[in-house]
Amino acid sequence: MIFNNLIRIAKPYCYALYSLFFVSGFATATDSEFPNHITIATQHWPPYQQEVNGIQTGFSIHALRCVMAKMKQRYKVVFVPWGRAQNGVKTGQYDAFFAASQNEWRDEFAVLSNTFIEQKWKFYLHKDSTLSTDIDSLKTSAVFGTRIHSNTDHWLQKNEFQKIRQFVSIEQLVKLQSNKRIDAIMENALLFEEEVLKAGYTMSDFKVIENMDYNLGVYFSKSLLKKYPQFLSTFNKSTSACVYAHD
To answer: How does DSSP assign 37-82, residue by residue?
Structure first.
């Protein structure tokens, strides 16, 4: 009798404890589908991304912010040199880097998201250049300046352009070409045009040859995606409402 009474008294508490454990376990499983916080590395690359007095702005910054808000994902963007941003993801220091276009080396240690940030690549020659504007001819005749660690540099080398000189910044490239120290540049159009205006030149100082569209996304580390296999598909679905396209 006493034992039966104890069972009747204890039963509601047992159900309550069972419910608590079930709900708690369910919440933990749901939370574990996504990281609590991720760190994304980037470079100073206006007008796509820049940080001035602690304020982060730019087309890529706003597009990323839009996606993360839709996912309700906590994240932090850190500005470092571009080579360090990429190698930092390779070594596990960072979870991702952006804004980036696809290449084979990056694919070894990271996975590119949907590309949702527009990028156009163009060739630039000095307006007084006597070189042929035929791209196959430029492969052997033109001395190209490129940004080290950039995908434009990687593309030129992959496509067997024979005379490539690497430099640190777009500022150097524009100055060198304006002074006819290099023959050609193949660059992101927005990046090049921004620097030309900043340096006090105009686009009429250059010959422009169309190359290709090669849009940008976020490269997430394979180790992050292995731990959170649902993350990338959810991120990709969220990009459709956050596309940046230059008018």
So the answer is: -EEEEE--BTTTBEEETTEEESHHHHHHHHHHHHHT--EEEEE--H
Say how far apart CA 65 and CA 228 lie, in whole Å: 20
> Tokens in use for 180?
């006819």
Give the chain's radius of gyration (CA, Å). 25
The residues near 119 (Cβ < 8 Å, ≥ 6 apart) are 99, 101, 188, 189, 190, 213, 214, 215, 216
What residue segments make up the domains of the chain, in order of their start? 1-32, 38-118+216-241, 120-213
Residue 83: both structure tokens together: 């080579």
Q: pLDDT, tens digit, for every residue of 42-53? A: 999 999 999 999
Closest of 94, 95, 99, 103 to residue 116, by C-alpha = 99
- Domain 38-118+216-241 -> CATH class: alpha beta
CB 156 within 8 A of CB 164: yes
With the CA atoms of 91, 96, 101 and 102 taken in that order, what torsion angle do they form, in degrees rounded to the nearest 10? 50
Provide the token pair at 150: 């950039």
pTM of structure: 0.81
One-character DSSP codes across 184-218:
EEEEEHHHHHHHHHHTT--GGGEEEEEEEE--BEE
Per-residue pLDDT reduced to its tens digit, 147-156: 999 999 999 9
Q: Decide if 38-118+216-241 and 120-213 have a common fold.
A: yes
Domain 120-213 has CATH 3.40.190.10: yes
What CA–CA distance (Å, rounded) separates 198 from 113?
31
